[in-house]
Amino acid sequence: MSRLTRVEAQERNRTRVLAAARDEFAERGYRDAKIDAIAERAELTRGAVYSNFPGKRALYFAVLAGLAEQAPALSPAPAPGRTTGDALAALARAWLARLPTSAESARLGMDVLGEVMADEATRQPYAQLMSLDAVLLGLALERLRPDGRLVRVAETVLTALHGASQLAAAAPGFVEPFNVVSACEQLAYLNVDDGWLELPFTTRVQTVDEPWSPPAAWDSVRAEEVSLDADGVVAVLGLHRAASVEHAVRAAPADTAVTAVLVSGAPRELIPLARLAVAELTGCLRQAFPEYAWPRLRVVCDGTGELAAAVGVPAVSDSTEVAVRIACGRVVARSDGYGACHVTAAAKAPAP
């Protein structure tokens, strides 16, 4: 039997740690779970656990992210809606179908918000990730009803659904699914002031002619591998700037592909949180909306920084905002700093 390579052994150990952690969190809850117990379940050393994850919270986020990404394949899909009301009702049904049905499953996810609120290092990124989710849902709603911005409606829907999730864990039996579905359906017709005001950014666009050889990327919106070779806008965004990609979407021509590449100064903990936040929504969105209404925005969680480096950003932080324009297989324009998404997408793409 051939020996595993170092990379294969690391991946095997990581898989074993995640499986053991899932069992430990489900049985004991996050607070009472112990790294030593997880290592024992995985038949590994404590050091092997820490070589894959910097701490218990990072491991917790990674477990939940994996479950959220797998959830759509494990549950029956509702019929997608053809109107905004029907789509939001289907979204709510898909969301509620994933709520915990036992004390064990409730223990697994009930500490997420507590850990997010534990310090500013997680609160600010999570707030931006929720705003990004609202942008994704709003864009999908606008594909079904293209008569204005619907991001604030999406924010209200997500508030209701996340509230239902928390109450289902904290007060079993309190959430009445039928009422939540009906409420979300009616929110499609909520009358809110949702105009889009573009700020006068002072950031400048630089015309360049640079090679473009992006690595393979995984789009969390469609749950598929995508090529970033095609013409469009690619924005590298730290988790304090995640929602800024809407500026690129609003400023770019309607047929322009826009990709948000999410990066972080603490990728081993915060990128799993990003994966979790995006997957919780998009898994349900793909079930509830017809494919033609899925948002054209792509979201890539770049935990290694490999894609960011291909864009020309070798060092990233949670405040990073760099956008490039791709044309004919070359980087033809770039901008760096606050407003980069807007000015890069709005600028006329020069010939390479």
Key features of this structure:
8 strands; 352 residues; Arc Repressor Mutant, subunit A; alpha/beta; Glutaredoxin
- Give the overall shape, derived from the CA principal axes: globular
Low-pLDDT residue spans: none
Number of domains: 3
CATH fold group of the largest domain: Glutaredoxin
* Name of the CATH homologous superfamily of the largest domain: Glutaredoxin
State the total count of DSSP E strands. Answer: 8
Percent helix range: 40-55%
Structural overview:
- With 352 residues, the chain is an alpha/beta fold.
- It is built from 14 helices and eight strands.
- The strands form two sheets. Strands 1-8-7-4-5-6 form a six-stranded mixed beta sheet.
- A hairpin with a 4-residue loop joins β2 and β3.
- α5 (84-96) runs parallel beside α9.
Summarize the structure.
With 352 residues, the chain is of the alpha/beta class. The protein has helices spanning 6-32, 35-42, 46-52, 56-74, 84-96, 103-109, 112-116, 120-144, 151-170, 177-187, 245-251, 267-288, 306-311, 340-346; strands at residues 206-211, 217-219, 224-226, 232-238, 257-263, 297-301, 321-327, 330-336.
